[in-house]
């Protein structure tokens, strides 16, 4: 009996996909220019089924690539040759919302949006909001340790995962963590699986921590004639002991693309636009918004708009929200990167990216999360143009190296996957990679879980 | 254009980010990537690159797609899904991967005959009207003669809409001129609209006249061809476009008005459809520039608010896919409804989610269509509205099949009712 036949016996014919048309549509994720047909796709609905699938695959040493909605941007869920794709989108139940402990227990295939909506309906907030949250699954968010726009004030996915159910490479099912705020019983194993990119185990359930929803919010938009002035504004705001929930910026190329696409009246001569939001108690929010406005003006903002109504706030936020769309439609291939540096080095990094783009004759629009130093240099290119793709590679390498030099990292929120494997040793050091390999070998001795991702 | 000939960059424009997935009704129901826009585009790309032959499975997949274009609204990269969808279906028909004698016959009759020749459609309408009005239909149902029909037809029979006694040309004169004429517009009366909702066409003319528009309604009009374009019959779609362009004196008109969301979305593409036709290209471009949805046109010329108050009613607005996703008209119909004294507009949850009508989808894919209708029905129930406003005849037929606690009305009909109440002196 072939492995696929065993899967059919286990799950039934409807939940094992083998037709070529089905393999083609599970060959990619959200990463540009990467695709690989899997051997088959399985769609379990229970943890037990996941465990059985892993056991069957392990018995034949067949690689298993776990996948949610496939929105990742580093190739983490792109199949490896001959792999079984373990797709968890059908495990999509919210199991419990505990308002006394402020937690939510969900299956791995629940979308981030559903988590956010269910929390909001109870007057709570699940802060991590990655760009693909409308469709990304929480299992994928945890496996990639996703970020989002609110990182500076609220942190990232890791800060909201307090427990999980995981299936190991042996097929064993474990529960890690729990509802206790304090819990120091042994190693924090759940932390090992957060950001492990599907290489150490399969996350099947997640226990999330929620926080009370802020009562009010204020939105400001400032424009700057110099990138440095925008960066200084951000530093000065933080130095003034204000932690805004949003501090997003757009560079010149992005501003032009957004204006061309959305016609919202952005100044085309601006070098940078800063979208700032503060949330919390209404009086504090008022004070902070006033202080932020004053700081921006002091540091030479050419204009500062403060939203007076929710509708106006919405309008101001459009520029940032439209930036990816505006860039993505310029050229056939859009490569979204996420080099990240300490906040203090932001201006240097942005200037370097612009210089690299000029030198390699490439179009790069940069926008991103200025508050946490997480930049999104976005390459507007065409994967059919091999010469240009080579220059993109080269530019990317330079950008990553410079980020590391500045004390930053090669990826702030997208993960290593396939796309950034070769840069990992430089970013974290050979010693760290060796330790990662050792952990991988211990947990997955036959190397069947997403092999070849993160490192070879 | 074939997928293979198509500038490959239209396919490559998809960056497979997945943001279309949550807006796709077939993906939301199945959570299978194959039934998502991103998956369908990946298959098209595989065919264009020669990595996949044009298979029967691909054909079935593309006919499982509603063509609602919700993905186009969600797409950050501006993928022209409508064009990909039409080209793919044309390829499928040409490759005949779905061909079988019954399907060929049904398609031939519907797409190639009934909706290709306006006289045939109207004659059929008359026959159906007599069948319904004479009481024959009642007898057939009482004697359960419908049992003799094949299962598919038997299930559809109760959904058969009421045919109007008078079609549009009996209700609207060829030229109607208001006292305060400011504009001159052409009026498209449609196919289904003409047979089932001819009063909506009359209401449209009334509203236009009340807003200073002289209305020209050519006697001989053709199906817009959207049915043909969406079902892989692009050559017929082009021919119908040419005939419609010939039916109107474009130079003398400020606008050509349509009140059907689905038709309007396609009618606006004539410029693109006939781009390579040396005789028609210029006029087709002119046509596309002048083609306006009624709500869009009223917003453009500045609508006169009705002075009379209608009996109080709670109304909700269901968006036709091709009005909101195809034409990006979302605000204008709501503005009209808010302008009518007496009506209370409440938002419909998932207002822009397909109702499952989708052209002839409710006939070709009854199971998925029923699921979407049930979803729509539940959402409508939460609003407590007694009127559901909708601006596409396909949606109206579909919604009326579950309309127990509400009526379905075109926004323009409600507006016309308010204008009529003025002259009756009612307050």
How would you describe this protein?
With 456 residues, chain A is of the alpha+beta class. Chain A has four domains: 3-87, Uridine Diphospho-n-acetylenolpyruvylglucosamine Reductase, domain 2; 94-212, Uridine Diphospho-n-acetylenolpyruvylglucosamine Reductase, domain 3 (2-Layer Sandwich); 216-325, Alpha-Beta Plaits (2-Layer Sandwich); 331-414, Alpha-Beta Plaits (2-Layer Sandwich). Chain A is built from 16 helices and 18 strands. The longest helix of chain A has 20 residues, at 386-405. The radius of gyration of chain A is 22 Å and the shape is globular. Chain B is an alpha/beta fold. Chain B has three domains: 8-95, Fumarate Reductase Iron-sulfur Protein, Chain B, domain 2 (Orthogonal Bundle); 100-303, no CATH class; 313-423, Rossmann fold (3-Layer(aba) Sandwich). Helices cover 52% and strands 8% of the residues of chain B. Chain B contains 25 helices and nine strands. Chain B has helices spanning 8-12, 25-30, 37-48, 56-64, 70-74, 81-95, 101-114, 118-133, 136-142, 151-156, 168-171, 192-196, 198-210, 226-230, 234-247, 261-267, 270-273, 281-290, 294-301, 321-326, 331-339, 361-364, 366-383, 393-400, 411-423; strands at 175-176, 183-187, 213-216, 255-258, 291-293, 313-317, 343-346, 387-389, 407-409. In chain B, the strands form two sheets. In chain B, strands 1-3-2-4-5 form a five-stranded mixed sheet. A four-stranded parallel sheet of chain B has the order 7-6-8-9, with helices on both faces. In chain B, α4 (56-64) packs across α6 and α21 (331-339) runs parallel beside α25 (411-423). Chain B starts with 7 loop residues before the first helix and ends with a helix. The mean pLDDT of chain B is 93. At the A-B interface, α2 and α12 of A face α1, α3 and α4 of B.
């Amino acid at each position: 009996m072939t492995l696929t036949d065993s899967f059919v016996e286990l799950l039934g014919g409807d939940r094992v996909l083998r037709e070529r048309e089905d393999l083609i549509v599970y060959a990619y994720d959200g990463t540009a220019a990467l695709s690989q047909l899997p051997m088959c796709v399985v769609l379990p609905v229970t943890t037990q089924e996941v465990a059985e699938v892993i056991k069957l695959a392990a018995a034949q040493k067949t690689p298993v690539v776990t996948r949610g909605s496939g929105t990742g941007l580093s190739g983490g869920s792109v199949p490896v040759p001959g792999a079984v794709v373990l797709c968890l989108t059908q495990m999509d139940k919210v199991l419990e919302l505990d308002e006394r402990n402020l937690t939510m227990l969900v299956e791995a295939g629940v979308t981030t949006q559903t988590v956010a909506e269910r929390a909001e309906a109870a007057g709570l907030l699940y802060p991590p909001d990655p760009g693909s949250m409308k469709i990304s699954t929480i299992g994928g968010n945890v496996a990639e340790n996703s970020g989002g726009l609110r990182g500076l004030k609220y942190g990232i996915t890791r800060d909201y995962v307090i427990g999980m159910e995981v299936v190991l490479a042996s097929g064993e099912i474990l529960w890690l963590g729990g509802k206790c705020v304090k819990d120091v019983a042994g190693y924090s194993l759940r932390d090992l699986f957060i950001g492990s990119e599907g290489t150490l185990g399969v996350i099947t359930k997640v226990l999330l921590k929620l926080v009370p929803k802020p009562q009010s919010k204020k939105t400001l938009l400032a424009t700057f004639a110099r990138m440095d002035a925008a960066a200084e504004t951000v530093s000065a705001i933080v130095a003034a002991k204000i932690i805004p929930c949003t501090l997003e910026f757009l560079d010149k190329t992005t501003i032009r693309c957004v204006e061309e696409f959305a016609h919202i009246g952005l100044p085309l001569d601006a070098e940078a636009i800063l979208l700032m939001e503060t949330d919390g108690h209404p009086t504090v929010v008022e004070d902070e918004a006033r202080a932020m406005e004053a700081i921006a003006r002091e540091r030479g903002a050419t204009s500062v708009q403060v939203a007076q109504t929710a509708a106006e706030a919405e309008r101001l936020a459009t520029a940032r929200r439209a930036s990816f769309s505006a860039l993505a439609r310029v050229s056939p291939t859009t490569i979204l990167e996420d080099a990240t540096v300490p906040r203090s080095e932001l201006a240097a990094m942005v200037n370097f990216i612009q210089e690299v783009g000029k030198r390699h004759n490439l179009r790069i629009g940069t926008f991103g999360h200025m508050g946490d130093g997480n930049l999104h240099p976005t390459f507007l290119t065409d994967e059919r143009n091999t010469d240009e793709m080579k220059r993109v590679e080269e530019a990317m390498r330079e950008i990553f190296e410079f980020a590391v030099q500045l004390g930053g990292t090669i990826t702030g929120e997208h993960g290593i996957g396939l796309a950034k494997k070769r840069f990992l040793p430089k970013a974290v050091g050979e010693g760290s990679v060796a330790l990662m390999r050792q952990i991988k070998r211990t947990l997955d001795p036959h190397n069947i879980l997403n092999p070849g991702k993160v490192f070879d | 254009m074939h997928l293979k000939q198509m500038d490959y960059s239209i396919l490559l424009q998809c960056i497979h980010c997945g943001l279309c997935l949550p807006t796709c009704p077939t993906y939301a129901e199945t959570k299978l990537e194959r039934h998502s826009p991103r998956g369908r585009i990946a298959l098209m790309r595989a065919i264009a690159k020669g990595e996949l032959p044009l298979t029967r499975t691909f054909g079935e997949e593309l006919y499982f797609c509603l063509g609602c274009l919700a993905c186009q609204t969600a797409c950050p990269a501006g993928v022209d899904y409508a064009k990909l969808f039409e080209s793919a279906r044309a390829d499928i028909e040409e490759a005949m991967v779905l061909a079988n004698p019954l399907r060929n016959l049904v398609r031939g009759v519907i797409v190639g005959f009934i909706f290709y020749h306006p006289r045939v459609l109207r004659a059929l309408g008359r026959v159906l009207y007599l069948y319904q009005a004479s009481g024959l239909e009642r007898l057939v149902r009482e004697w359960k003669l419908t049992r003799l029909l094949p299962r598919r037809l038997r299930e559809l029979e109760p959904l058969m809409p009421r045919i109007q006694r008078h079609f549009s040309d009996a209700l609207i004169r060829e030229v109607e001129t208001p006292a305060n004429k400011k504009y001159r517009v052409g009026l498209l009366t449609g196919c289904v609209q003409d047979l089932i909702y001819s009063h909506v066409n009359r209401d449209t003319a009334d509203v236009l006249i009340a807003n200073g528009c002289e209305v020209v309604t050519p006697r001989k009009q053709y199906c817009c061809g959207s049915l043909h374009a969406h079902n892989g019959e692009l050559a017929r779609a082009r021919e119908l476009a040419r005939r419609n362009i010939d039916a109107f004196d474009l130079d003398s008109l400020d606008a050509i008005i349509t009140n059907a969301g689905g038709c309007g979305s396609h009618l606006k593409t004539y410029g693109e459809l006939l781009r390579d036709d040396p005789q028609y290209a210029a006029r087709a471009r002119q046509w596309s520039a002048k083609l306006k949805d009624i709500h869009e046109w009223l917003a453009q010329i500045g609508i006169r608010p009705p002075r009379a108050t209608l009996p109080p009613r709670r109304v909700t607005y269901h968006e036709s896919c091709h009005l909101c996703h195809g034409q990006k008209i979302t605000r204008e119909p709501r503005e009209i409804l808010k302008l009518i004294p007496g009506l209370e507009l409440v938002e419909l949850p998932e207002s822009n989610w397909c109702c499952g009508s989708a052209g002839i989808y409710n006939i070709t894919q009854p199971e998925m269509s029923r699921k979407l209708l049930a979803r729509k029905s539940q959402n409508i129930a939460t609003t407590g509205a007694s009127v559901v406003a909708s601006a596409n005849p396909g949606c109206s037929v579909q919604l009326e099949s579950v309309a127990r606690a509400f009526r379905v009305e075109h926004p323009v009909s409600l507006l016309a009712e308010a204008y009529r109440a003025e002259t009756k002196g009612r307050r």
